[in-house]
Specification:
heterotrimer, A alpha/beta (about 425), B mainly beta (about 100), C alpha+beta (about 1000), A: 12 helices, 18 strands, globular, B: about 100 residues, 4-stranded antiparallel beta sheet, 1 helix, SoxD (chain B), SoxD_sf (chain B), Sarcosine oxidase subunit delta family protein (chain B), Rhodanese-like_dom (chain A), SoxB (chain A)
């Protein structure tokens, strides 16, 4: 792999940038792989990378129906944090956080992981109880998380209206300094480039039309463009399409697909250095390095695969932003878009074996997938390599929805994303 | 934003008056106590979640407060029919595979 | 300063109204009818910004929504600062103050510009992914500098002083765009009687007809335009919306229109006027007549000020009477752009040459050029512009017939303006917003709207029909079709005929080849605002970014505030060529709302400040305010939290309220509790199914507490339900849960058990509810009622009575959330304040003390009563709460939640269970949310047992009390657990029962 550095950039500048290598190959698919990963998003590519790097399994194909990182990896609001309430979730997301730290160097690709901190605001007394509960749990789980009062919030975000005369005044917040944002596309590209360099075949424009099973075990996938690809183990990481893939394998998942919308303003001069999230007034915001205010809220209530949602969601989101930041009222919205998120009833993912042998699913991340990308890939790679769940993945079995051992993140902490 | 025909009001109204309530035609088991954990879990949580034709339950929450069913394409978001609770859809689940 | 480029006559400006404005600190003059851009060009202002990455001087290129460079900061005051206003779309007003959004320290010399030429070569697309990685900790510092370059304009630092509003519209036909096609469509539709909305982003309707030159039926086009607008204005069924951009096309024909009502008058809207309005339109049918955007050609140094779109030059001349230069070179791939050279010449300035990229182009347009004595170079192209802060020359070379190579020797044409036209791209944006993909059409040399499920028609240039006559005819016919589809009888309106020169075939050319490879040629800009060049796109594809989405994301093409209106098609063509694909194979990125940016405030509308969310008040609210209550937000309600007396701390107030209630009598405004009236012969059966406990035998006149679970067995609400009659019940719910509970009840009734005859309605707002609690409650109430027998043995605990209180009809419930003798008095809401005040009149002698939610919480915690949503979180079932007494397992119907709480994980014995907790130091109040551990010295991550759900100082018990969840807690009474707090302190607490006061419940039974 061609190493990237400032010096390399200078060298290439002298030759008019005509000699840069391809970031990844366009390989002709082999007929047989040790592991086939369906889905070339951030999680799938991270899985491939860690399979090769940590487990020495390089005879791996990542099969992607569109382009790499073109699903929710391309459509999220790039927030990374690990301050989840329940131990199972907190440990998984903190595992991811530790991988984020140093990932640019690990991949030799600048992911612009920027630990500018995330605030989760509280506006009611119950919000504040929930914040205390979560902050205390985080702290004892070794996660940097502190509770702030109104004054503390105001100091971190001087431009927010923290006065008592708002409709829902800011009473305080939880604050995770190590949390932040990363450049979403770069995450997919960085993992893809590094996985490709270790021999993983990244096969774009290749749509899986069936999962082939023999004697109750998965043995390969049928694709529209390249026929049958056989694999010893198959991992599906297809956010927004999990239900469709599960149906091919003959089972259902406790997952529903919903539109999740986001929007950006026109770029403005830097004015907001942290990520501010409010579940109560229902909106969150950060400012990208390009200057756009990146804004989102919750999912639309209905099922949908359309990568778009309903307009009132956008209205409510901007009402929330203007409620928190009355100074942004004259800023203008440039663009909105939508992704498809696979949501689980307990707002926690599924990293699991399935009723079909040798077939594993990693899905149901809802609105929280991006931040987990390296952690998700890491534990899923271990799960695929060993054929059984990684220790951190065990609580996230799809069968928890039978025995009742749910990890109810939204019921408890009420923090989306 | 959807424009939804409420089969009770007999009018098209804006989506803001309605709440989506998930998949339609999910009958509560007649004898829950006889269900295994797996059966009960399947009833509670596991869903076909189709891409394409989907029958879903909505409620005219800020209107007549009636629940009713919608057959909708989850890809194009077209509403193909709405019908009252207890009525059967004209379009059936067997045609779910129209799109992928 | 004089308006050196202003023509002495012509244009649609009002020369009798000169206007003064500021740009970059300088004062200029323009006229009413000018855009900010036309006024700047009239004044000969060339450099209006610096480019974002390379810091190159930039000028105005276009005249409309596609302008990438002239993006300014507007506003004379801090509160009216408006970032990123496009000068081509901003009408000039007197006193307008504008600033460039880039270029430090000034536009004409800047340090970054110098750095830009040196460093420019170091900044290929995606350079930031390849560097700034070492050392790891330095990224924060690198990023600080990267962020300095971010953004265009700036946010105001003060809250907006203007208001915005929304209008909901229903229409039969919405026509988007009031150019020739849209106007003709509007005539047809309007005459049928259909309700028509005609919206156009510009101040004046007319579209291309405003840009002059056309004759219709032998008359100037302006005459037909005026007659048409006059006719449309006469119809009651037509709404004309100028200055109104249709920005989003959403599902089921829902569209949003952003109307700028006062931005042409001044910074700030006149008093009581909304600055902008968002129309939320539900249209039966939509006619898109959005026109097309001209494509510039891509060539070396094509970003020099003076490089402009051909049609924009014509617009400035004809509409604004501004010629933005003296000597013009026009490069074109088509006949239509010759018009610009003719306009230029008619304005009295010199046309140096028309450079036509087509070999042997010959026809009516070339004939006219010859007649005018204009030099035409066919089969040639401008490969490079020369100049520093303004075009000084055009390097012209021969072009191979397929447009792939520059041939022969160059000549340099001296000029100061270089207009180009690469043809027209239909403005398909809106047609794509709901997921329809546009289709490449080789004839049109552009994308046209694709198949859609919306009720939508496309007329004129947006559909690839560029001729004026075609536009008029298609508009008229599709306007009639839309009205017909919407149920009206409509005929296509008769439209006039334009005299048009026949046009010969245009050439599909996007990037003009240089003698050097694109990587070595002078920069050929594709997207000006994001500084994306042809070489950058080629580099992206060479590196393997082959999907057009990858190209976009890697290079940032189309990410600007113009969203690629000017450059995207050129960029796609360059990518396609580089990948050896057709443009059709390469495809487009996805068009998303908004078409042009929309003010946040306009989208929020009136739903901000106090109107962000409705506030709900009880009937006694004014009394609470008058008596100094602090309020708590619970759902949308404002509830009194506590009533501090002057000088009291919160804790002092709570202590006083708690003691007064237990010692004499206190009063709580409980009106916000949800109240659902339930009737019908099967109401009792229904209650038995939705509550966990038994309801079959509850007699009339009695009340009972019940728990509600979801199907998973987890508690989600609770409350007291009273039997008002054999088939009539009143259910109470938590304040925040009321609406959800009612919908949930209806869900089960309507979908699962429609055979049950039961009717439910919310009556929360009908009743004012006040709870008097304490040993003197009976005495107090007895002074206000003479028809309710309050005798302790006839009106028992958990009974209710109907009667008169303070002279008004009342329902009195003897229920208690405090453990005290307690009556909950319900009167019709409008009597609430009266009864409340009467209670105080009579209560003075008992020191009747109002208490708020906080004291209520303390008093109930002393008794171990739970609050659903505080002591529960959706993960605890009744057994976890130690409330098996509230679950009746042997009811004939398997009530909701019963099966769920029997699942494998729910019957574990080591679940987190609700217990009481007493700190060993009685003075320490544990923080709610503190987490318990068995060993406070274990390493992190620690094994946590559960958290504190409720915790208070109890003045009655003179110590702290708490409730919390503890793993296996019901079997651990007497154990000590540890709470390591944030401040480093570890608090020890003993697990105990949840009832701290009066365990036998004697106080409420007195």
């Amino acid at each position: 792999m061609q190493k990237y550095s400032g010096f390399g950039l200078l060298k290439h500048a002298l030759t008019y940038h005509e000699n840069w290598q391809r970031v990844w190959r366009n390989p002709k698919p082999k007929r047989k792989y040790d592991v086939i990963i369906v889905g070339g998003g951030g999680h799938g590519l991270a899985t491939a990378y860690y399979l090769a790097k940590e487990h020495g399994i390089t005879n791996v194909a990542v099969v992607e129906k569109g382009y790499l990182g073109g699903g929710n990896t391309a459509r999220n609001t790039t927030i990374v944090r690990s301050n989840y309430l329940w131990d199972e979730a907190a440990l998984l997301y903190e595992h991811a956080m530790k991988l984020w730290e140093g990932l640019s160097q690990d991949l030799n690709y600048n992911l612009m992981f920027s630990q500018r901190g995330v605030l989760n605001l509280g506006h009611t007394l119950q919000d504040m109880r929930d914040i205390q509960r979560r902050v205390n749990a985080n702290r004892l789980n070794g996660i940097d998380s502190v509770a702030l009062d109104t004054q503390g919030v105001q100091e971190i975000v001087p431009i927010m209206d923290c006065s008592a005369n708002r409709r829902y005044p800011v009473l305080g917040a939880s604050w995770q300094p190590r949390a932040g944002v990363a450049r979403h596309d770069a995450v997919a590209w960085g993992f893809a480039r590094a996985a490709d360099a270790m021999g993983v075949d990244l096969i774009q424009q290749c749509e899986v039309t069936d999962i082939i099973t023999e004697d109750g075990a998965a043995v390969g996938v049928e694709t529209k463009q390249h026929g049958v690809l056989r694999g010893d183990r198959i991992g599906c990481v297809v956010a927004g399409n999990s239900g469709v893939l599960a149906k091919m394998a003959g089972f259902e998942l406790p997952v529903e697909s919903h539109p999740l919308q986001a929007l950006v303003s026109e770029p403005i001069r830097p004015i907001l250095d942290t990520v501010v999230m409010s579940n109560h007034v229902h909106g969150y915001i950060s400012q990208s390095d390009k200057g756009d205010l990146v804004i989102g809220a919750g999912i639309d209530g209905y099922n949908g695969y359309g990568q778009r949602g309903s307009y009132p969601t956008i209205e409510h989101t901007l009402q929330a932003i203007v409620e928190m930041f009355p100074i942004f009222s004259r800023v203008r919205m440039n663009r909105q878009w939508g992704g498809i998120v696979d949501t689980c009833p307990d707002a926690c993912p599924i990293i699991s074996d399935t009723p079909v042998d040798n077939l594993f699913f990693n899905c149901g991340w809802g609105t929280g997938g991006f931040k987990a990308t390296p952690g998700s890939g890491h534990v899923f790679a271990a799960t695929l390599a060993k054929g059984k769940a990684h220790e951190l993945a065990k609580p996230f079995s799809m069968f928890r929805f039978h025995n009742g051992a749910l990890i109810d993140e939204h019921g408890a902490a009420g923090v989306a994303h | 934003m959807f424009y939804i025909y409420c089969p009770y009001c007999g009018e098209h109204r804006e989506e803001e008056e309605f709440h989506a309530k998930g998949q339609a035609h999910l009958a509560r088991p007649k004898d829950p106590d006889a269900c295994s954990d797996e059966e009960w879990g399947n009833f509670l949580y596991f869903r076909p979640n189709p891409r394409g034709l989907y029958h879903e339950l909505w409620v005219h929450a800020i209107g007549c407060r009636k629940f009713f069913n919608i057959a909708r394409d989850t890809q194009t978001y077209e509403i193909l029919e709405t019908y009252r609770i207890g009525e059967s859809p004209k379009l059936s689940q067997s045609t779910d595979q129209q799109q992928s | 300063m004089t308006q050196s480029n202003r023509l002495p006559r012509g244009g649609r400006i009002d020369r009798s109204r000169p206007l003064t404005f500021k740009f970059n600190g300088q004062t200029y003059q323009g006229f009413a009818g000018d855009s900010l851009a036309s006024a700047l060009l009239a004044n000969g202002v060339d450099v209006i910004g610096r480019s974002f990455k390379y810091s190159r001087p930039r000028g105005i290129i276009a005249a409309g929504a596609e302008e990438p460079n002239a993006v300014f900061q507007l506003g004379a005051t801090e509160a009216t600062q408006t970032p990123n206003v496009r000068a081509t779309q901003q009408e000039l007003f007197d006193g307008l103050v504008s600033q460039p959004t880039s270029g430090w320290p000034n536009l004409n010399f800047d340090f970054m510009g110098l750095m830009g030429t040196i460093l420019g070569r170091m900044l290929p697309p995606g350079f930031y992914y390849k560097t700034f990685m070492f050392p790891q900790a330095a990224w924060d510092t690198y990023e600080k500098y990267i962020r300095k370059a971010a953004g265009l304009g700036r946010s105001p630092r003060e809250p907006d002083v203007d208001i915005y509003d929304h209008l909901n519209q229903h229409t039969d036909v919405l026509i988007v765009g009031a150019g020739p096609a849209g106007l003709a469509a509007a005539l047809s539709a309007a005459r049928s009687g259909a309700r028509v909305i005609l919206a156009d982003e510009q101040a004046e309707m007319g579209g291309s007809l405003l840009d002059g030159g056309y004759t219709l039926d032998g008359q100037p086009a302006a005459e037909w335009l005026k007659a048409t607008l006059d006719e449309l204005a006469r119809y009651d069924n037509v709404l004309l919306l100028p200055r109104s951009t249709v920005n989003g096309y959403h599902d089921h024909n829902f569209l949003t229109i952003h109307e700028r009502r006062t931005d042409h008058i001044g910074d700030r809207a006149p008093a009581n006027h909304s600055r902008q309005r968002l129309h939320r339109v539900r249209a039966k049918w939509v006619v898109l007549a959005t026109g097309a955007h001209e494509r510039p050609l891509v060539y070396g140094n094509n970003d020099l000020p003076g490089c402009m779109l051909a049609s924009a030059v014509s617009t400035y001349i004809n509409r604004y009477a501004v010629v933005p230069g003296n000597r013009l070179v026009l490069m074109t791939t088509n006949d239509n752009a010759y018009r610009t050279a003719f306009d230029w010449q008619d304005a009295g300035r010199e046309v140096v040459a028309i450079v036509d990229t087509r070999q042997g182009a010959a026809g009516a347009w070339q004939e006219e050029a010859r007649r005018r004595g204009i030099k035409v170079l066919t089969g040639h192209a401008v490969i490079e512009a020369r100049g520093r802060k303004r075009v000084q020359g055009a390097v012209v070379s021969g072009l191979s017939p397929d447009g792939s190579q520059a041939l022969g020797s160059d000549q340099v044409l001296v000029c100061d303006t270089l207009a180009t036209s690469g043809g027209w791209s239909p403005a398909v944006h809106l047609s794509c917003h709901t997921g329809s993909r546009p289709i490449w059409d080789d004839e049109v040399i552009g994308f046209v709207p694709g198949k859609t499920v919306q009720k939508q028609l496309a007329a004129g240039a947006v559909a690839g029909r560029f001729g004026l006559n075609e536009c008029l005819e298609e508009g008229a016919s599709l306007g009639a079709l839309a009205a017909t589809n919407a149920g009206f009888t409509a005929e296509p309106a008769a439209v006039p005929t334009a005299e048009c020169r026949p046009e010969t075939r245009p050439m599909a050319l996007f990037c003009v080849p240089h003698h050097k490879r694109n990587s070595r040629a002078p920069k050929q800009f594709v997207d000006f605002q994001t500084d994306v060049t042809a070489a950058a796109i080629e580099l992206a594809t060479r590196e393997g970014f082959e999907s057009i989405e990858h190209v976009k994301r890697y290079t940032a093409m189309g990410f600007g505030t113009d969203q690629g209106k000017l450059g995207n098609i050129n960029g796609m063509a360059i990518a396609a060529k580089s990948l050896n694909q057709t443009i059709s194979e390469t495809g487009t990125t996805i068009f998303r709302p908004n078409y042009t940016p929309v003010t946040f405030g306009a989208i929020a509308g009136r739903h901000c400040n106090d109107l962000f969310d409705p506030m709900r008040y009880t009937a006694m609210h004014e009394w609470h305010v008058k008596h100094g209550a602090k309020f708590e937000d619970v759902g949308q309600w404002k509830r009194p939290w506590y009533y501090p007396k002057p000088g009291e701390t919160m804790q002092q107030a709570l202590n006083r309220e708690c003691l007064a209630t237990r010692d004499s009598v206190g009063i709580l405004d409980a009106s916000t509790l949800g109240k659902i009236d339930i009737q019908g012969k099967d109401a009792r059966e229904f209650l038995g199914r939705v509550y966990t406990n038994a309801w079959a035998k509850l007699p009339v006149g009695k009340c009972r507490y019940g728990l509600m679970c979801r199907e998973d067995g987890m508690v989600f609400d609770d409350g007291v339900t009273s039997c008002l009659g054999e088939n009539h019940f009143l259910m109470t719910t938590t304040t925040g849960g009321a609406a959800g509970v009612l919908e949930w009840l209806e869900l089960y009734h309507q979908t699962e058990w429609p055979e049950l005859e039961v009717y439910m309605n919310t009556v929360t707002d009908h009743w004012a509810t006040m709870t008097i609690a304490g040993p003197n409650a009976r005495k107090l109430l007895s002074e206000l009622t003479d028809d309710i027998d309050l005798d302790r043995d006839t009106f028992k605990f958990m009974d209710w009575r109907q009667g008169t209180v303070a002279g008004v009809p009342a329902r009195v419930f003897r229920i208690s959330f405090t453990g005290e003798l307690s009556y909950e008095i319900n009167v019709q809401a409008h009597y609430g304040l009266h009864v409340w005040e009467k209670l105080f009149e009579h209560g003075a002698k008992y020191d009747l003390t109002p208490y708020g939610t906080e004291t209520m919480h303390i008093l109930r915690a002393e008794k171990g009563f739970i609050i659903a949503g505080q002591d529960t979180d959706g993960s605890v079932h009744p057994y976890d709460l130690g409330m098996s007494w509230a679950v009746k397992e042997d009811k004939p119907f398997s009530f909701i939640g019963k099966r769920g709480m029997k699942r494998e994980d729910c019957v574990r014995t080591d679940r987190k269970q609700l217990v009481g907790l007493k700190t060993l130091d009685p003075g320490i109040v544990l923080p709610e949310g503190a987490q318990a551990v068995d060993d406070p010295n274990q390493p992190k991550p620690m094994k946590m047992l559960g958290h504190i759900t409720s915790s208070y100082y109890s003045a009655n018990l003179e110590r702290s009390i708490a409730m919390g969840l503890i793993r296996n807690g019901h079997n651990r009474e007497g154990d000590i657990v540890y709470y390591p707090l944030e401040n480093g302190r570890v608090v020890e607490a003993e697990i105990c029962g949840t009832i701290f006061l009066d365990p036998k419940g004697e106080r409420q039974n007195v």
